[in-house]
Amino acid sequence: MTNFNPRQGERWQLKASPMSYPMARGDGEHSYSQNSNVQREVVEAARVLVKKAIEENMEFSNSSGTCNTFAIADFGCSIGSNTLIATQNIIEAVKHKYQSQHPNHPSLEFQVFFNDHLNNDFNTLFGNLPPSGEFFAAGVPGSFHNRLFPKSSLHLGHSSCALHWLSKVPDEVMDVNSPAWNRDSIHCSGVSKEVAKAYAAQFQNDMERFLNARAQEVVGGGLLVLTVSGEAERTFSSQTFRGLLNDILGSCLADMAEEGLISEEKLEAFNLPIYNPTIQEMEAVLQRSAYFSVERISSMATQETISPIMAKGDGEHSYSQNSNSQRGIVEAAKVLVNSAIEDMLEFSNSCGTSNTFAIADFGCSTGSNTLIATQNIIKAVKQKYQSQYPNHPPLEFQLFFNDHVNNDFNTLFRSFPPSWEFFAAGVPGSFYNRLFPKASLHLGYSSSALHWLSKVPDEVMNVNSPAWNKDSFHCSGVSKEVNKAYAAQFQNDMERFLNARAQEVVGGGLLLLTVFGLPEGTVQSQTFRGVVNDIMYNCLKDMAEEGLISEEKLEAFNLPMYIPTILELEAVLQRNAYFSVERISSLIGNPIPSTSPSIIQPLSKSMRAIFQELIRQHFGDHIVDSVFERYPRTLSENLHKMRN
């Protein structure tokens, strides 16, 4: 998030013939309007920063002059409601500051210019305009890399999730004789230094053109507020969520080329005109500008970029090698799982005329735990089916292993036994959304996964909210407001999970869930799990005090995790209109592990396997080793807290 003020400068004439990359039109199933929730969350998350920028930096005496009209432009508006949410946030913040400074002046009138490429679907955008008429609206077609407005005609310019789109693919990337020819990828993956250098240079050139154009259009004392998609320093794009999605798209096109559906030549000539700069690159190009003073550069963590995935591979720090406690839960639940299948599974309805029995493990991760669990399920289903239908052919089992898109499915698949007795498939995606066709599963299963939320609650990240979680990074239970926000997010997520599964599981099928829970009235920080989380937070806090990470970064970091009470879990299950709750059992194994010094190394490794990806995604690769070198020492110093 960047905001800055224009300074006086000479006029630059810029000419270009930009390419055009409009989002999918209309408001149908495949439209951008219906499929831009991630961008909407960025707009919502930036609201506090935008308001603060306007409050601290907007100068009405210069920017408004004698005119009572306040002109706003959204560069790269696209077609959905996101631009309307953003401009509404801006209008509210401007109104608030203006009225506090000039309480006796007439109210401002707002004119909002919505800019995007010439072939943007302005019709759909205009159809979404609110009927209240709080502002005068106009659509401005053209590339924001060029001049679009008369000199000194705008008071505030805004752009969100648009400036990573380049004016064109770098020429070198398309040149077969260039070292930067990007033959084996469709985007700037970061693997090739030459490709990355070409993309970085194009981004720098485009940003300079954008700033030079805005310098002539924005009045002195006005603001330019930009939200730009970026990457952490020393991170390859292909290691990020965005980059992985681009790689998957490239793989689909490569498969189609191999099948002769598209030409190899066409594929090699296709590159995405997208570049996500590092924060340092963005700062450098802004600081070089001769026309703007940079007032603030803020890093903003957004929810969809933080995925709670376990440590990949099967090495020393992997989840595969450090998930013994989760394995213990799977084994302990075996008797309950067998009993549920024996008592409740109805083959007559659930299998129909097909001999295939479909099972899905939601939140499978990478280790062998999911295989142990599914083998237990298969054995129990087989036993019941054979006892009911001894003369029928045996069932065939199809197992779907589900987890986030960037879960390490490769390691999972390599861990399969050499002669497994099922047909396997990996299903990438959040289990809070639909993942399967209607009535296609006979049994759904999840173990030690549903405490992971779809996102951190918005209120917890909002500095102006009573639920701002400044002094912790998880739901410790100390603050009622924080606890209420997390509890509401859990309830909403569980309802989404159950509603999705209700459409996917056949009548007579089963949904078996093992969920972490707390006794009623327990404060999370008083539990073993809460103490180990607090120790992790203290390590990060020490690093912030030493200047190794920023205070701002630490305050913006929260775990998307909530452990409900048993009563909370029962309530959300009982409210669901699609499932009948047949059995809720408390599984009590050994909730408080041994607190002897021998636990320090295994527990530290387990915490690293679980949390290192979250920490890496938020703070960057460079701090991961340091955090988990500190953790065993801090854990050793705090063992006494776990014994109390």
TrEMBL record:
<dbReference type="GO" id="GO:0046872">
    <property type="term" value="F:metal ion binding"/>
</dbReference>
<keyword id="KW-0489">Methyltransferase</keyword>
<dbReference type="InterPro" id="IPR005299">
    <property type="entry name" value="MeTrfase_7"/>
</dbReference>
<keyword id="KW-0460">Magnesium</keyword>
<dbReference type="GO" id="GO:0032259">
    <property type="term" value="P:methylation"/>
</dbReference>
<protein>
    <recommendedName>
        <fullName>S-adenosylmethionine-dependent methyltransferase</fullName>
    </recommendedName>
</protein>
<keyword id="KW-0808">Transferase</keyword>
<keyword id="KW-0479">Metal-binding</keyword>
<dbReference type="InterPro" id="IPR029063">
    <property type="entry name" value="SAM-dependent_MTases_sf"/>
</dbReference>
<dbReference type="GO" id="GO:0008168">
    <property type="term" value="F:methyltransferase activity"/>
</dbReference>
<dbReference type="Pfam" id="PF03492">
    <property type="entry name" value="Methyltransf_7"/>
</dbReference>
<dbReference type="InterPro" id="IPR042086">
    <property type="entry name" value="MeTrfase_capping"/>
</dbReference>
